[in-house]
């Protein structure tokens, strides 16, 4: 090992008034916390005309999952939380994957070893486990007992529990005190850390060393991360001190919690996975709004009333660290559902129809390349359902009847069971009166008596409610079942208009034939 301390590299001037980063570990489906953390990072970076970086912390080779990184790109991109520097877009601090930066960490480790601030440790995992067990049984404080400290390899090899490849540990002084000023929590003091491993036996740095070196070399000015890292921050601050560097500012965000206050984990809660929100038909802008509200107060209107619906630009403009609520927010999906409905209703019609498309294609309601007439019909149906759904996934059941052949329409069990005694009579009278309506067109030249929702409604009310004396509820139920196959559907007369006269009559007679 070297005896003179190697010089640390000079860091060039980097772009951005402030520089923030999110640093997910690619260990599986991206966690919703990654989006939540990114949102607060980006909001501040944009407000300050700074930069936002995406760094992949892949030093834990045992938990590494190859497809995880592209899922991080996809889900953060879907949310519009885009990064200025990262593994895919490059930047002045490339590479942005820690596994590609192994040489970067070496001089830092050598320097600590040369200065006696770190030492090699050859203890086997088995010995460390035994040590911990004894400490726990005898109620001693847990932590490394420094068996290797001050020993040469030969001296240590003579003792039990020796492993060939050493790790490197920080030598944390006994009397060390580390306090730091957190942008959200104010002054934080944390207990004295253990002699933390900074370089693993496989030659990879641990998170603690890599995060400090990379945040320094990438010019990070504000470290915004989850509160689970508070107890690690003293180790990081010591490393900055030992390297003669000024630490960044820290902000530890409150952890997202389940209703029972436990930490949201992917094992227990499907909503911990970011891809779940895509699958469930949430809009990215609703999720962004929801994540902001979890730890940040709503906006206020001119009269001082809370405004819970706001977009990213608005959030970023009024963002202030002092207003972040440090108490772990409950992940209340009912609130997200409400927001999602609000955002769905706020979309313009073309946009709304476009967002339904991938779901309808995946559910085989529409082909992968819909025709122009299919798209026109989708737009017409979309208008009927926009106020009726809270998740995009709900569209499939409502839209499908408009795209199946008349003889392929399935009648749901409950709809058939609810037809009522007079269904046959209703279907016959409806078919007769609808048959008299002109079937020409939806164009500007259509006549007063053409096939439109208004003429259909007038004709059916006249024939069924006035003519047969059946209450509207019972009169229209069988018709709804005939045209949609379900008890719940988009508005009946508008649906008939979109289906057209021929299809409507085909469906009425198809159901009639089964009675
Ligand atoms: N890789 C860490 C994580 O996934 C990053 C923590 C940090 O932001 O410092 O949580």
* Alpha-carbon distance between the two ends: 90 Å
Main sheet makeup: 3 strands, antiparallel
Structural class: mainly alpha
Shape: elongated
CATH top-level class of the largest domain: Alpha Beta
Q: What number of domains? A: 3
Topology, number of strands: 11
Strand order of the largest sheet: 3-4-7
List low-confidence stretches: none
Spell out which ligands are present.
Answer: glutamic acid
**How many alpha or pi helices?**
20
Overall residue-averaged pLDDT value: 95
* Fraction of helical residues: 40-55%
Could you please say which CATH topology of the largest domain applies here? Rossmann fold
Percent range for β-strand residues: 5-15%
* CATH homologous superfamily assignment of the largest domain: HUPs
CATH architecture of the largest domain: 3-Layer(aba) Sandwich
Give the oligomer, counting copies of the same chain as homo and different chains as hetero. single chain
Short description:
This protein has 515 residues and is mainly α. It has helices spanning 32-47, 68-78, 102-114, 125-137, 153-157, 207-217, 233-242, 274-279, 284-295, 312-318, 333-346, 349-362, 372-385, 395-399, 413-417, 423-435, 453-467, 472-484, 492-499, 501-513, and strands at residues 19-22, 51-54, 118-123, 162-170, 179-182, 186-189, 197-199, 222-226, 249-253, 299-300, 306-307.
Characteristic terms for this protein:
515 residues; mainly alpha; Rossmann fold; Helicase, Ruva Protein, domain 3; Arc Repressor Mutant, subunit A; three-stranded antiparallel beta sheet; two-stranded parallel ribbon; 9% strand; elongated; binds glutamic acid
């Amino acid at each position: 090992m070297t005896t003179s301390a190697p010089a640390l590299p000079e860091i060039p001037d980097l772009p951005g008034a402030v520089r923030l980063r999110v640093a997910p570990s690619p260990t599986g489906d991206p966690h919703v916390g990654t989006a939540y953390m990114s949102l607060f990072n980006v909001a501040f970076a944009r407000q300050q005309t700074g930069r936002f970086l995406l760094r992949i912390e892949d030093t834990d080779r045992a938990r590494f999952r190859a497809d995880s990184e592209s899922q991080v790109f996809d889900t953060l991109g879907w949310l519009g939380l885009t990064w200025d520097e990262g593994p895919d877009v490059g930047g002045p601090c490339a590479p942005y994957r820690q596994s590609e930066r192994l040489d970067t960490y070496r001089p830092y480790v050598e320097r600590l070893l040369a200065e006696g601030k770190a030492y090699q440790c050859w203890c086997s995992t088995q010995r460390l486990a035994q040590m911990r067990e004894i400490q726990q049984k005898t109620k001693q404080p847990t932590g490394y007992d420094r068996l290797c400290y001050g020993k040469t390899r030969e001296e240590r090899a003579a003792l039990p529990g020796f492993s060939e490849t050493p790790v490197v540990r920080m030598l944390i002084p006994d009397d060390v005190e580390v306090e730091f000023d957190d942008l959200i929590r104010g002054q934080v003091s944390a207990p004295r850390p253990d002699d933390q491993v900074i370089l693993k036996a496989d030659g990879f740095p641990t998170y603690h060393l890599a995060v400090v070196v990379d945040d320094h070399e990438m010019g990070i000015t504000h470290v915004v991360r989850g509160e689970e890292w508070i107890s690690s921050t003293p180790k990081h601050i010591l490393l900055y001190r030992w390297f003669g560097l000024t630490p960044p500012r820290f902000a530890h965000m409150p952890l997202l919690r389940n209703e029972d206050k436990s930490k949201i984990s992917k094992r227990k809660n499907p909503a911990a996975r970011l891809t779940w929100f895509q699958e469930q038909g949430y809009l990215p802008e609703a999720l962004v709004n929801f994540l902001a509200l979890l730890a940040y107060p709503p906006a206020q209107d001119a009269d001082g009333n809370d405004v819970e619906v706001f977009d990213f630009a608005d959030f970023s403009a009024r963002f202030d660290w002092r207003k972040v609520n440090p108490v772990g927010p409950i992940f209340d999906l009912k609130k997200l559902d409400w927001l999602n409905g609000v955002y769905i209703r706020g979309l313009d019609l073309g946009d709304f129809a476009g967002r339904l498309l991938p779901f309808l294609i995946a559910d085989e309601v529409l082909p992968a390349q819909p025709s122009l007439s299919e798209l026109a019909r989708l737009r017409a149906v979309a208008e009927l359902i926009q106020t009726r759904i809270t998740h995009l996934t709900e569209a499939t059941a409502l839209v499908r009847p408009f795209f199946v052949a008349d003889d392929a329409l399935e009648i749901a069990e409950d709809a058939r069971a609810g037809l009522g005694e007079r269904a046959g009579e209703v279907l016959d009278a409806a078919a007769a009166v609808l048959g008299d309506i002109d079937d020409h067109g939806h164009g500007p030249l259509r006549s007063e008596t053409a096939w439109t929702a208004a003429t259909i409604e007038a004709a059916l009310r006249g024939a069924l409610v006035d003519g047969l004396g059946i209450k509207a509820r019972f009169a229209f139920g069988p018709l709804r079942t005939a045209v949609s196959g379900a008890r719940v559907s988009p508005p009946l007369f508008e649906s008939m208009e979109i289906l057209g006269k021929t299809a409507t009559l085909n469906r009425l007679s198809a159901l009639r034939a089964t009675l």
